[in-house]
Structures are given as C-alpha cells and as structure tokens.
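Please, is this right?
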Amino acid sequence: MARVVVLGAALGGLQTALLLAQDGHGVTVLERDPQPPPSGAEPAWSQWPRPGIAQLRQTHLPLARWLQLAEAHLPDLVREMTGAGAVRMNVLTPEPGFRGPPTAGDERFDTLAARRSLLESAATRVAEGAGIRIGLGTVCRGLRSSPGPRTSYGGASGERVPQVTGVETDAGFTAADLVVDCTGRRSQLPSWLRDIGVPCPVDESRRRGFTYYSQYFRSADGEMPTDRFPLVVEHGSLGLLRIPADHGTYSLCLIGRSDDQQLRRALRNEHAWSAAVRLFPGADRWLDGQPVTDGIQIMAGLTDRKRPLYDTRQPLVTGLVAVGDAWAITTPTVGRGLAMSLQHSLLLRDALRRTGTTHPFELVTRFAEATRDSLGRIYEQTAAYTRHRLAEMDAHTAGTPYRNPDWSRAKALALLAQRDTDALRAERAAAHLLPGAREVLRAPALADAVARLVPEVGQRMPPGPSRADLLKVVDG
C-alpha cells in the first residue's frame, strides 16, 4: 500500500484521507492551523479559531448528492455528524411549489443541515478514530521531487516528468508516494510547482463574482420560522439564502455582486442589512431569532476558478494531485463544493485501485481523464450560471431585462417549478447533481412546457424592487 500525504484537514481533505485509509493506504494529514476542535457543537462554533477555513461561519448547506455519496462510502462520517446534531432535511418539501405528500423516491432530496463548524469537527473525530494521523500546526513550505517516468505522447516522447517524493514542512521533510493537495481556495500549488521547475498553467478565473453578507440566528423554540420557504431567491440585483442548520440555528445570507460598492458599504451595517432582508416576501419573520454571530459576516471574491492541471494529455508532474477546491472553485451560491470534492476524492480512490503508485504516470493520467469526464461539465455549467446571474444583476441595476436564450430557459424552468411539483423535482434534481437529472430535463413534455414559458420570462424584469428603491431602503 502507498504512503499518502494529504495537505489540509478541512472536510475535503478528511474525506479524501478516510477513503484512502479504508483501502489500506498509510495516510498522514498535514494541517497548518494549530488548534484541534473543542468538544461540542457550541464550543466548535464559538471557540474554534480556524483561519484556514474561510467559510467556517458562513451560510452552508451540502447538496443532496453529497449525502448520497457520503452514506454510500463514508457511513461513519454521516453517523457522527447526525449524532452531533446535524439535521436530516429534504431540500424539496420546503419549497412553496411543492404540493401533496412526498412520494417514493423523494428521499433522494435529503441532505444534512448543520453549521460548517459541526461538520468539520465531526470529520476530525472520525478521522482520528480511524487511526489517521493529523499533524496540526504543520506548515507546508514546498515540494521535493526527483526525475520521474518518461512520457509517451507524440513529440514529447522520452522526456521525463518530475516525480514528487514528499513535502517540505517547517518540521522537516515528509516522504510520500503520493501527495494530495486539499488546501482549498488558498492553495499555494502554483508556487510550489514553480519551485521544482514545473511551469504550472495560469488559472482559469472569472474576474467578477459575488459577495456574501450573512448572519446566523437561533430560534426561540428550536423550530424554523416557517416550514415553507424558498431556500434561494434571486431578487433583482440581490439574492437571499435561507438555510436551516443544527440545534435550532439557521442563517440568512444576502448575495450581491463583488464589485457593487454601493451595496457593499451599506450592507456592513446590521440595520441596513435587516432592511434589505425585509424586501424579500416572508423573510421578515426570520429576523426574529437571536443572532449567534457578531455582526454581519462578509466573504468576498466568490467566483469560479479552475486550475488546468488536467486539461492536457501530458501530465505536468507525477506523485501529486489536486483535489476539490485546490483544483476548481465554484461559486458557493449553488452549493456544489462539498459534493464535487467528495466525487473527486472517489475518482482518486478508484484510480489508485486500478494503478497503485508503482505506475505514477498512469495514475495521474487516469485521474486527469476521470476529472475531465466527471467534473469538467459540472464546472463549466456552474461557471455559466455565474456569468448569466452577474449579467442579470448588471441589467437590473441599469433598469433593463437581461435577454439570453439559455438564461431565459433556466428562468422558465424555475417558474414552472413554482407551479408544477414534477417540474420542481426535475429542477431540484439538476441543481443537486442527482443521477439521471439531465435525462429528466430533456423529456419532451417538460421541455415543451418550459419552451412555452420562455416568452413570459424573457421580456420582463426579475422580481424585486428597483435599484433606486433598494438603495433608498439600505441607505436608511
């Protein structure tokens, strides 16, 4: 079995470590943050300094696809999370467009609602219980490499690809047959690769994105303010997330453009933030809870970025892979990060099962192919959402509708989902990356119903106040 070093002890890294340890690999996790999670959901929320996880106290809800994969491959992790207070919830039944009782198969829309700190602390306990060593307070300074296997493609045949043999840390050198970068959006991989002579490709990154303005609350009776509510509402040049969590907590998150300086200045203020939340129908009652965060939590620069390590047939380096957010970041609004990360970890596990580390060139090649085939389309689809939503927000600010055929079809499907429960199932299945969702969306009856609604949505402004009215409210 292989010696594997996983860089990063956030949930993505721990999922990877658990999957590889199940196959008998010797796994060590290195984490630069020094503090272990305290015992209990509330101390983990209020007392755990975890600067390496920027989203620790931000609005969070995993996709239903993540729970499906976790229950199938990491059942101990799911049990630990639910035992700590994570709530099994269905992302279909709260939606206002859901009518009638749930039917057989609707359980596929279940996920776990919890604050990110609870999920992270639970994952740490499971990893430690599985015998995985977590080296807290260990800072990775770079990589060590040696001449690796010869390539076999076209004109490059015979050239050697560097083989990573371990990581240099502030505590010394740690040898590895495989290094897995799970350090997320702050990954230093490009500079590490340059230091060993590997020309890392320039990231594919969107210039613009979103900013989150969020706050967590605790309800007085432990229940949600209402049992029917849309989880996501796109309201002109502003969006709102209403997300249940654990132990009677929930979050409200306003979503603006990252370059919207007018709103950014205003929404730092709790009074202005609350006034903006009240612009969303039915959202005012969600403000009655007791805040459990200190002021408005802001997270900016939320966009899509992909590191094109796996976009060519020729591997840049062997003995090293990037998984999850270290490879590609998607805008958190659609919540795909954890599901994509777990799926990516499973692709790595399966590639290791087929090739082991004794064939490093084949391992990286197979993993690259699987990444492109399984996750490339999801990334492009998510990046298209970001592009269209930002364009719609721009248009709303200018006082004009945004006209684009693909976006109009997406809006028509969302409108149909408010009127027809089967359309809602299809729309939610696609949003949560559930198997078979694409085929359902292509069904002739559904496609025709969506097409009939396109003219209705294509000529109108998105719902919500005008830009002038929005600024008037938040400026007080």
About this structure: The mean pLDDT is 92. The chain is about 40% helix and 20% strand. Residues 114 and 245 are 4 Å apart (CA to CA). The radius of gyration is 23 Å.
